[in-house]
Automatic annotation (TrEMBL):
Name of the protein in question: DUF2178 domain-containing protein
UniProt KW keywords: Membrane, Transmembrane, Transmembrane helix
Organism: Methanobacterium formicicum (strain DSM 3637 / PP1)
Transmembrane regions: 7-23, 29-45, 66-87, 99-119
Pfam families reported in the protein's UniProt record: DUF2178
Taxonomy, superkingdom: Archaea
InterPro entries: DUF2178_TM
Length: 125
């Protein structure tokens, strides 16, 4: 577990550094390449290790945190989108951003319920 955490920190530093450099040099390909390489390194190490990387408690905490993040984010962008749409008379430039955020909130909730239905059918009743 300790080795995997160290590897993740090193990979995160590598990806952050390369992405920062790619932003400075305006090279999108370099950023995408760094993210792909970092993901591959983490995946390969996790696949080939004998360490116990995750137990039931970690999985449950991760599940709860992910669900709360999705709920709070979708509610936040829905309210921000609604607020920007309501201000369309004073700030017409922000109306499109309001609609985009609102549609993104709906899409996120739809994805959540699609995956919820899939996993409920696969593992549930």
């Amino acid at each position: 577990m300790k080795n995997y955490q160290i590897l993740r920190i090193i990979v995160a530093i590598f990806v952050a550094t390369v992405v920062s450099l790619s932003v400075i040099t305006e090279n999108l390909l370099l950023a995408i390449l760094a993210i792909v390489i970092g993901t591959m390194i983490s995946y390969i190490y996790k696949k080939n290790t004998d360490e116990i990387l995750e137990d039931e408690r970690i999985a449950k905490v991760s599940e709860k945190a992910s669900r709360m993040a999705i709920v709070l984010f979708s509610i936040s962008i829905a309210f921000i989108g609604m607020f920007l749409i309501m201000l369309r008379n004073e700030y017409p430039d922000f109306t499109q951003a309001g609609f985009t955020l609102s549609y993104a909130a709906v899409a996120l909730l739809m994805l959540y319920y699609i995956f919820y239905g899939y996993y409920d059918k696969k593992y549930g009743s």
